[in-house]
Amino acid sequence: MNKKPVLEVKNLKQYFTSGYGKNKTVVKAVDDVSFTIYKGETFGLVGESGCGKTTTGRTIIRLYEPTDGEVYFNGKLISGKLSKEEEREVTRGIQMIFQDPIASLNPRMTVKEIIGEGLKINKLCDSEKHMMELIYNILETVGLTREHANRYPHEFSGGQRQRIGIARALITNPDLVIADEPISALDVSIQAQVLNLLNKLKDQLGLTVLFIAHDLSVVKYFSDKIGVMYNGKLVEIAESDELYNYPIHPYTKSLLSAIPLPDPNYERHRKRLYYDPSIHDYSREKPELIEIRPNHFIYASKEEVKEYKKNL
User: Fold this and answer.
1) In whole angstroms, what is the distance from residue 282 CA to residue 291 CA?
2) β-strands 176-180, 94-97: how paired?
3) Are 35 and 42 contacting, i.e. CB atoms less than 8 angstroms apart?
4) Which helix (H) or strand (E) holds 201?
């Protein structure tokens, strides 16, 4: 059975310039990134802070205009100029759960106004009564109650605020949800609750998710496929179990070696691997994403691939 691609990112580039004149520098935040997410799939995007994960998500949802490359949503090109009708389709079809549940909610609006805004803009309800029914329903779906609808964001805890953010993202029944580190700003005990909620909703509503995080253990638990990002580039893409069992790129191995385990004996003897980007010599041959095992891609030169295959 052919799976339907919901999102196709092709050679996406997002460069920023800073300074003026002679001091002008170009920051390649996202540099030639390509991946595909199929319907019902969760694609985890991981990497250390500053590697370009969030910028990738924000460029996909059109908060930034890409420097180069193409983004296709349900087969339609959405990275160029769009008509108002097409823009509305994209804003309804792609929703984002932001990293900071405090900064992403308007403190002057009640919960029902925050969640109902998406319904009004996209004309998804035909009356006030219908709108309130949908709001109450989504509040209960994310583990809140209808009594919460008339309160303001400051009256909630961090975990509850993130649930409001999730409800706001899901109210338009989107085809793709971009979850940008949705648990990193929360306490550890609350992280597990929100993660379990997202997992339940993913199965219940058949969500397609781009899950951005820097915690590899969380991504393994939540994702079907994982892309590892370093310095603006995707260096390895594979299915979740495949990536954890057979990491190939030295940066991926370094990230995996940093995952702590609740075992004092293991932690005492754990060997950390440190990634040194200078080990790659790309002066003679340009690297590219190459399939090294079935559905397992690695960013490397052909010479490096030969070396990696010796160790498989």
Assistant:
1) 18
2) parallel
3) no
4) helix 188-205
What is the pTM for the complete model shown? Answer: 0.90
Write down the residue that tokens 């095992």 correspond to: 293
312 residues of the chain, pLDDT tens digit each: 468 899 999 999 999 998 887 888 999 999 999 999 999 999 999 998 889 999 999 999 998 999 999 999 999 999 888 888 888 889 889 999 988 888 889 999 999 999 999 898 888 888 899 999 999 999 999 989 999 999 999 999 888 999 999 999 999 999 999 999 888 877 888 888 888 888 888 888 889 999 998 878 888 888 999 999 999 999 999 999 999 999 999 999 999 988 888 888 888 888 889 999 889 888 888 899 999 999 999 999 988 988 888 877
Output phi, psi for 132, to 5 deg.
-65, -35
Between the alpha carbon of residue 241 and those of residues 40, 221, 247, 262, 292, the distances in Å are 18, 10, 10, 20, 16
Domains present along the chain, CATH in parentheses:
5-310 (3.40.50.300)
CA pair distance 87, 263, nearest whole angstrom: 50
CA 17 to the chain's CA centroid: 24
